[in-house]
Write a structure and sequence with these properties.
511 residues, alpha/beta, cAMP-dependent Protein Kinase, Chain A, Enolase-like, domain 1, TIM Barrel, three-stranded antiparallel sheet, 16 strands, binds phosphoenolpyruvate, EC 4.2.1.11, magnesium
C-alpha cells in the first residue's frame, strides 16, 4: 500500500467512525439485542424492524414538500400540495382562495406561481424533518410566518392526512385523537338545492337554499330521499313557474341556479317537488343569505343612537336589475313571511353582524307565534311541526362570515343572536384552527354546521365533521365531486356495520 492509498484508508476509517458516532449505532444496536433477548418476542425480526423504524428520524418525518399550480374543480387555478414521507405521498388541493399572482396575462390575475415558489422553498424548509403527527405544532409554526393562506391550509390538511397514516388510523379517528374526542358522530347532511348570489349568477339573493330530511334514520335513507327531491326539482321548475324558466342551470355549489325572478317561485317549486316525491312533511330548508356579500349595506345614523341598516338585494341581478333596497324591518318581515309559509328551520348570515337587533326581533316574532300556537293548540301552522329538536327556539340562526373568530362566537352567545356556527376550512385557516373554533362553539352548546365551500373532490371535511361530532354538514348539490363527499359519509356509516357503529345524529341535529 503506498502512502496515498493508506491515507485514503485512514480517511475511510474516520468517516465510518464518525458515521457510527453520529447515529450512536454501536450503543443502539447493543441495547436492541439486549432488549430482544430479555423480551424474546415471537418474531425477533418483526420486532427489531419496528423498533429500529421508530428510532429513525427520517421514517417519522416529512422528507419532501412540493407544490403545483393545477386547475381546480371550478376551472380556475388551484394550489396542489404534496407531502412526501417514507409512509407514502399525501396530497391536497385548495382552490377558491388566494393570494393570487395578480398577473393579468395569466388566468386573469388568478395564477398561483408565487405561492408555489413559497411552498417549494420557504415552507418546505420549515416542514422537512418535522413529524406530521405534531399537527398543532406545525399549524402554529405556519401561522407565525406570513405564509399565503391557501398554502397554509393545503399544507395543514395534507399534514393531517400524513399524520393519520403514521398513526395507522382513518383521518376521522386521528382528528378525534388530536381534539381529545373518542366518540365520533355522523352529522345530518344538508343538500344544496338552489344557488343564487355569488354562486348562481342569477337574480336570487340568497347564496344557497339547502334541504335536509331530519327524520331519516341514516345517511343512506337521507340520501335516497335527497336523490328523489334533487331530480324532481328541475322538472317541477320548468313545468310550473310563470313566466317559464327554460333551463334549471347549475350553480357553483352543485345546486340549481334558475333564472327565477323571486324567492317565492323557488320556495313554491321546492314545496311542490316535495309533495311529488312524498317528502312534504319531511324535507326542511336552510337558507344561507350570506349578507356579507352585499357590499352595499348602508349604515345610516338617524341622529339618535340607533343605526339603521339597509340591504341591497339586487346586486347579483346584472346591469339590468332594478335596485332593491330593504331596511332591517322589511328584512325581518320578509324572513318571517318565508318562515310562516315554507318549512325553513335554519337561516344563515341573514343580517349584518352589527345588526343584532334585527336577528333578535325575528327570533322574538317566531317565538311569540310558537307561544300562540301552543296556547291555541293550532296544528296548522308550519311552526307547529316538531322539527329542530329545540322547540324553545324553533329557528336556527347560524353565523358564518358573521362569526369569524372565537370572540365573535362568545359575543353571539352572550347576545343570543346566533345559536349555531358554520365552520369551513377556509375560515378556520388550519386543522387546529377548525378544532379551536369547534371547541369554542361546543363549550357554549352551539351546534356546528360544517360547510364545504370548495368544489374540489376531497372528502377531508367529512372526516373533520365526523371526528368532532358536528351535528350538521353541507357539502354541495348531488352531482360530480359533491356526490363523492356524500358518499364518504355513507362509507363511514357503513364501515362500522356489525360493530359498535358511529351514531347518526338524525333528529337531534340542533344538539
Ligand atoms: C358554501 C356555502 O356558502 P358559504 O361560502 O357562505 O359558506 C353554501 O351556501 O353552501
Amino acid at each position: 500500500m503506498n502512502q496515498l492509498e493508506s491515507a485514503a484508508v485512514q480517511d475511510d476509517k474516520r468517516d465510518i467512525l464518525e458515521y457510527m458516532k453520529k447515529f450512536r449505532l454501536e450503543e443502539v444496536l447493543n441495547d436492541l439485542i439486549n432488549e430482544l433477548v430479555r423480551e424474546r418476542p415471537e418474531d425477533p425480526f418483526v420486532d427489531l424492524a419496528q423498533t429500529i423504524e421508530a428510532k429513525s428520524v427520517l421514517a417519522n418525518s416529512i422528507v419532501a414538500v412540493r407544490a403545483k399550480e393545477v386547475i381546480g374543480a371550478n376551472g380556475e387555478p388551484a394550489l396542489e400540495v404534496e407531502i412526501e414521507t417514507l409512509k407514502g405521498v399525501f396530497q391536497s388541493i385548495v382552490g377558491g382562495i388566494g393570494p393570487y399572482d395578480g398577473d393579468e396575462e395569466r388566468f386573469a390575475g388568478k395564477g398561483l406561481t408565487s405561492c408555489v415558489k413559497i411552498v417549494n422553498t420557504l415552507m418546505a424548509d420549515k416542514l422537512i424533518g418535522k413529524d406530521p403527527r405534531r399537527q398543532e405544532f406545525i399549524d402554529s409554526m405556519l401561522a407565525e410566518e406570513d405564509f399565503p393562506a391557501n398554502a397554509v391550509l393545503a399544507v395543514s390538511i395534507t399534514v393531517c392526512k400524513a399524520g393519520a397514516k403514521f398513526n395507522e388510523m382513518p383521518v376521522y379517528e386521528h382528528v378525534g385523537a388530536l381534539a381529545n374526542i373518542s366518540e365520533p358522530r355522523i352529522p345530518m347532511p344538508w343538500f344544496n338545492l338552489v344557488n343564487g348570489n355569488t354562486f348562481g349568477e342569477n337574480e336570487l339573493y340568497p347564496k344557497s337554499v339547502s334541504f335536509a330530511i331530519p327524520e331519516a334514520e341514516s345517511v343512506r335513507e337521507a340520501l335516497e330521499g335527497a336523490s328523489k327531491l334533487y331530480s324532481q326539482f328541475p322538472k317541477t321548475l320548468v313545468s310550473t313557474v310563470i313566466p317559464p324558466v327554460k333551463s334549471p342551470n347549475v350553480g357553483k355549489l352543485g345546486g340549481f341556479a334558475p333564472a327565477c325572478e323571486n324567492m317565492t317561485d323557488v320556495f313554491n317549486t321546492v314545496k311542490t317537488s316535495a309533495i311529488e316525491v312524498e317528502l312534504a312533511q319531511k324535507a326542511v330548508l336552510s337558507v344561507n343569505m350570506g349578507v356579507a356579500s352585499y357590499s352595499s349595506i348602508l349604515e345610516t345614523d338617524e341622529g339618535d343612537d340607533e343605526v339603521q341598516f339597509q340591504y341591497e338585494l339586487s346586486k347579483f341581478g346584472g346591469e339590468e336589475a332594478v335596485k332593491v333596497l330593504k331596511g332591517s324591518g322589511e328584512m325581518v318581515d320578509e324572513y318571517y313571511d318565508w318562515l310562516v309559509n315554507y318549512p325553513i328551520v335554519s337561516l344563515e348570515d341573514a343580517f349584518e353582524k352589527k345588526d343584532a337587533g334585527s336577528i333578535i326581533a325575528l327570533k322574538e316574532k317566531v317565538e311569540s307565534e310558537i307561544e300562540r300556537i301552543k296556547e291555541a293548540d293550532d296544528e296548522t301552522s308550519p311552526f307547529a311541526a316538531d322539527v329542530g329538536g329545540n322547540e324553545g327556539c324553533f329557528l336556527q340562526t347560524v353565523g358564518d362570515d358573521c362569526l369569524g373568530s372565537q370572540d365573535d362566537i362568545v359575543r353571539a352567545e352572550e347576545k343570543q343572536t346566533f345559536n349555531g356556527v358554520t365552520l369551513t376550512m377556509n375560515k378556520a385557516k388550519t386543522v387546529s384552527g377548525f378544532i379551536g373554533l369547534w371547541q369554542k362553539a361546543d363549550s357554549l352548546g352551539m351546534p356546528v354546521v360544517a360547510v364545504d365551500e370548495s368544489e374540489e373532490n376531497d372528502p377531508f371535511l367529512v372526516h373533520m365533521a365526523v371526528a368532532l361530532r358536528c351535528s350538521q354538514i353541507r357539502l354541495g348539490g348531488l352531482l360530480g365531486g359533491f356526490a363523492t363527499k356524500y358518499n364518504e359519509l355513507l362509507r363511514l356509516e357503513d364501515s362500522q356495520d356489525g360493530g359498535e357503529g358511529i351514531a347518526y345524529v338524525g333528529k337531534d341535529y340542533r344538539k
